[in-house]
Amino acid sequence: MISYREALSHIGEPGPDGVIPAFRDGYATAPASLSEAIVAMADPRPAEWSLPVEEHVDAFWTENCQGVAVGGGHWFFPSNGSWFGVGDVTPRAIFKFSGSQQVGQFVVHDDDADHLGDVDYSGGQVFAALEGSPKSQYGSAVLSVDETFTFSQVLPLLGENGGAPPQGGEMPWCAINPWNGLLYSSPFGDTHAVKTVFAYRPADDGWRNAPAENIHLRGHHPTRVQGGAFSPRGHLYLTSDAYVDDVNKGVHVFSGLNGAYRGVIKVLALDDNQELEGLCFAALNMNGSSVQLHVVLLEQLKLEKDDIFLKHYAAPNPMHV
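Above: the chain's sequence. Below: its structure in token form.
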């Protein structure tokens, strides 16, 4: 294994001041051991990820699909529902699948939120980002529901001392960081770039911001952030519905240690009606290929249900994701 000092150069450390960050205290988030941190500094090589498996899905639940999560042997897909109450209306709900078979549905009612965003799975629970929630003075909230869809609660995002959350009412995604167990989110960033991904810990009155654990992004500030997920190695992957070139949108990759930019995984989006949504990590074997990252590209259709392209990406080195 390379030395700590040598590994630091991969994430732009030490900075201009020449100070070597102390393990754990010198980072926004960190794993349990120094050896794990050194591995987490390895380059995930985003430009070299491949797309061995892609599924085109046209179904009742793909209408306004906002993302994906995998856990407990199931797939979870959030749909923000049909815009208009005519015909075969898709509810605002999280749809649960075992393979290709739907085995559950959790409806998010108007008294919980008017927008359901991306979801994450952790510890037997599904966490969902909510906007326009009557249960939050500021609009942004988190739905947590157990994987059997039996018990649930909606709690607001809050500031460190219980006031307004630092990202305001915007809540496109949420994800649990495996290193510290905290929930992370960011604003959408339509008119302003996203510079900070905010950390929240559960409290009796909601999810309170934990400023010391916020991840300040360095080297790139994405806009139109629709989804986020942490890899097993602590990298933060953010989907952006902004084009990085003429035909591709991007999954932008950052170090969970210090927010250093690692690069972009390009996602082909040839048409203006194709919107890059949420994503998740799960090491799976699909059609004979080992894949780790699963990304939803929504194809919005005016006169019929929306479709999705469910893209399954493979890392050049799965040990360094």
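The helical segments are 4-8, 34-40.
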